[in-house]
Specification:
The protein is mainly alpha-helical. The protein folds into 2 domains: 15-80, Arc Repressor Mutant, subunit A, CATH 1.10.10.10; 85-227, Four Helix Bundle (Hemerythrin (Met), subunit A). 67% of the residues lie in helices and 4% in strands. The protein has 10 helices and 3 strands; from the N terminus they run αβααββααααααα. A 3-stranded antiparallel sheet has the order 1-3-2. Helix 4 crosses helix 8. It starts with 14 loop residues before the first helix and ends in a 5-residue tail after the last helix. 30% of the residues are buried.
Length: 228
């Protein structure tokens, strides 16, 4: 029987992997849809900020382009990829299915302590007025809520599949949370979701989370003209 022979590999992350991780994290924190133009990735500036040559920056950008997070244009450079309105609606629809399943699994698998931690995330927002008054802070808590919900599924494959989608879900949620009183509606939805998970009602948890995501889709359809 033949045996596969391999040479030992370096266990520590190589420089290009570190640059890729740093750049991907930076993109995930960007306000992708907030400006007139998509954010530009300036190789020289990024290299200076990270203290590296431009070679690992280029390699990281190429990886991100393959993942559909970056687009490069000849003689113009690389930009964070903005999705069209139709693409965002498709992302939300897929996310609704994934996060709905995550909620079902959280209701079945998460500990009481883990579920209780979700409720404390909104302890400073006693009502919808507080959410509106501190919209930036609430926006961040909203994003953390959805991250935490996915993690409580305790399903690594589900989390990995949702990972790339989350960058655009995070960006569109950040952009729309202050529109048409969505913050007030959001905090009500979150409390209902937490209550369903607390009661271990997996079916209701899945339905509420899916509906919550599709409310965002309805908002995008009706009011988000800046993605056309």
């Amino acid at each position: 029987m033949s045996v596969v022979k391999l040479d030992p590999i370096e266990a520590q992350p190589v420089l290009k992997d570190k640059v890729y991780d740093a750049l991907r994290e930076a993109i995930s924190e960007m306000d992708i849809y907030g400006g007139e133009e998509p954010p530009r990735l300036d190789e020289r500036m990024l290299a200076e900020e990270l203290g590296v040559s431009r070679t690992p920056i280029r390699e990281a950008i190429m990886c991100l382009e393959r993942e559909g997070l970056v687009v490069s244009y000849p003689r113009r450079g690389a930009y964070v990829l903005r999705k069209t309105k139709q693409e965002i609606l498709e992302i939300i629809a897929v996310w609704a299915a994934l996060e709905g399943m995550a909620a079902r699994m959280a209701a079945e698998n998460a500990s009481d302590e883990q579920i209780a931690e979700m409720r404390t995330m909104f302890a400073t927002f006693d009502d919808s007025k507080e959410a509106r008054a501190h919209i930036d802070e609430y926006s961040q808590k909203n994003i953390e809520f959805h991250q935490r919900l996915m993690q409580l599924s305790k399903c690594g494959l589900l989390i990995d599949i949702a990972d790339n989608l989350f960058i655009h879900m995070r960006a569109i949620r950040r952009k729309t949370i202050g529109e048409r009183d969505r913050a007030a509606e959001s905090i009500i939805d979150h409390m209902r979701i937490i209550e369903a998970i607390e009661s271990r009602d997996a079916t209701k948890s899945e339905r509420l989370v899916r509906e919550h995501a599709m409310y965002l889709a309805d908002h995008v359809k009706q009011y988000v003209d800046y993605l056309e």
